Amino acid sequence: MSSRSLNKVALIGNLTRDPELRYTPQGTAVAQFGLATNRDWVTANGEKKEEVQYHRIIAWSKLAELCSQLLSKGSKVFVEGRIVYRQFEGKDGTQKNITEIVMDNMIVLTPKSPTGQSTASDEDKPEEKKSKDALKGKKADDSAQVEENKTNEDIDDEEIPF
């Protein structure tokens, strides 16, 4: 019996570009986007420093379609998945190495505007709305988040993820 191991990644960051949705020849959806994460710290002599890391995120099937519908450049999102290393031959014939995060789960952290578009900042939202958005939401593959202040008449059938 082999020993147990774990390949798990959890990131919170902002999209660097809109998700790119494609389909395999077999019809399986696959989405790809960039995610930026920041780390701030203070050096021993009191100097503030910031480091930005860029991650390539891949989502498959229904989760890929949800990413395409719910996320856009600047959106803040929680991503959970696993690290995958790949090698391929570039157009120039050289070996290329790439590191990707294959997403298993996500939670959209950017609130939706009244038009249904993601907003990059929630500074102009009422305090009550901010506190509701701060609560942990359901996993995106279980259900999409629908604004609590909308009535059933305001929800378009296109917005329902199932």
UniProtKB/TrEMBL annotation:
Disordered: annotated span: 110-162
Alphabetical list of Pfam families matching this protein: SSB
GO cellular component terms attached to this protein's record: nucleoid
Motif (Important for interaction with partner proteins): 157-162
GO biological process, one term: DNA replication
Molecular function via GO: single-stranded DNA binding
Comp. bias intervals (Basic and acidic residues): 122-153
SUPFAM superfamilies: Nucleic acid-binding proteins
UniProtKB keywords: DNA damage, DNA recombination, DNA repair, DNA replication, DNA-binding
InterPro entries registered for this protein in UniProt: NA-bd_OB-fold, Primosome_PriB/ssb, ssDNA-bd
Transmembrane intervals: none
Cited function: Plays an important role in DNA replication, recombination and repair. Binds to ssDNA and to an array of partner proteins to recruit them to their sites of action during DNA metabolism.
Oligomer status and interactors: Homotetramer.
Name of the protein this chain belongs to: Single-stranded DNA-binding protein
Species of provenance: Candidatus Roizmanbacteria bacterium CG10_big_fil_rev_8_21_14_0_10_39_6
Organism lineage string: Bacteria, Candidatus Roizmaniibacteriota
